[in-house]
Amino acid sequence: MDWATDIFSIESREERSGFAMRVWRSTSVDVPSFVSVAVPTWQLVFVQSADGTKSVIARGPETQASRSGIPEDAEIFGIQFDLGVFLSDYPIGRLVDHAESLTAESRRSFWLNGTRYETPSFDNADVFVQHLIRSGALLRDPVVEQILQRRPVSLSDRSIQRRFIRSTGLTYAAVRQIERAERAGSLLRSGVPILDVVDDQGYSDQAHLTRSVKRYLGTTPGRIAKADR
User: Fold this and answer.
1) Burial of 114 from C-beta contacts in 10 A (0-12 / 13-18 / 19+)
2) CA 121: distance to chain centroid?
3) pLDDT above 90 for 68
4) Closest listed residue to residue 80, CA positions, set 174, 2, 15, 3
5) How far apart are CA 51 and CA 53, in angstroms?
6) What band does 229 get if pLDDT is binned at 50, 70 and 90?
7) pLDDT, mean over the chain
8) DSSP per residue, 164-199
9) Which of 106, 153, 155, 173 has its CA 20 to 30 A from that of 6?
């Protein structure tokens, strides 16, 4: 397999802010690219090259697996945000299946939403996230959490859909499909037979599972199962 988790040595930790899901870091490897699987969330990625050059990238959500290049001789760390967390005045929809480079004023700072920020590190990323929250640059829509937990929401279906898309860039149905493919991949890697995964995750048949896994994970159920063996 050539997913990031199979290629890179990744150190990560969970965040407890309620806004960021996790912070991770890694270093370049001598491989030109990897398969970036579909994810319903977005992240900020900070890259420092061997010559000291730094770049900041806002990336995702991603609705299908794609090939992503690997920068040479670089240290990389990222902040992955929770579903429903978004930037004020910066539509998440513009990041769907897209990566956008943010302006770096120097090696120590960059511009986001018209505001200059000190470039964080893996160790103080939580301080950076708290700063975004306190300044009102980072927001969270509680309606998204209610929908994901299948709790009642006192809004019309149209309003719910509009709030969900504004906060995530995706429809609720798209998020569910991505998350189901993730669960299917985990089951296959743990050795669960393909037909059992079809039944467990509610796919109509094996062909349906194959189409989903190929779209969202960039490979086939058979290859995942074979890699496990």
Assistant:
1) exposed
2) 19
3) no
4) 15
5) 6
6) low
7) 91
8) HHHHHSS-HHHHHHHHHHHHHHHHHHTT--HHHHHH
9) 173
Q: Which residues fall within 8 angstroms of residue 176, CB to CB, at 6 or more apart? A: none
Amino acid at 185: G
Closest CA to 36 of 54, 9, 59, 12: 59
Report if pTM > 0.85. yes
Which residue, chain included where needed, has tokens 């990897």?
A: 34
Distance (Å, rounded) from C-alpha 18 to C-alpha 131?
Answer: 14
- Cβ neighbors of 124 (< 8 A, separation 6 or more) are none
Per-residue confidence at 1, pLDDT binned at 50, 70, 90? low
Bridge-based pairing state of the strands 33-36 and 66-69 = antiparallel
Residue 228 pLDDT grade (very low, low, confident, very high; cuts 50, 70, 90):
low
Give 207-227 pLDDT, tens digit per residue.
999 999 999 999 999 999 887
d(CA 88, CA 86): 7
Structure tokens at 37: 């699987």
pLDDT of 73 over the 70 cut: yes
With beta carbons less than 8 A apart as the criterion, state whether 129 and 21 touch: no
Q: At what angle do helices 206-217 and 194-201 cross, to 10 degrees?
A: 90
Q: What is the CA radius of gyration of the chain?
A: 19
Other C-beta atoms closer than 10 Å to the C-beta of 100 total 11
Of 169, 19, 175, 14, nearest to 85 (Cα)?
A: 19
184, 201 contact by CB (below 8 A): yes
Q: Is the pLDDT of residue 107 over 80?
A: no
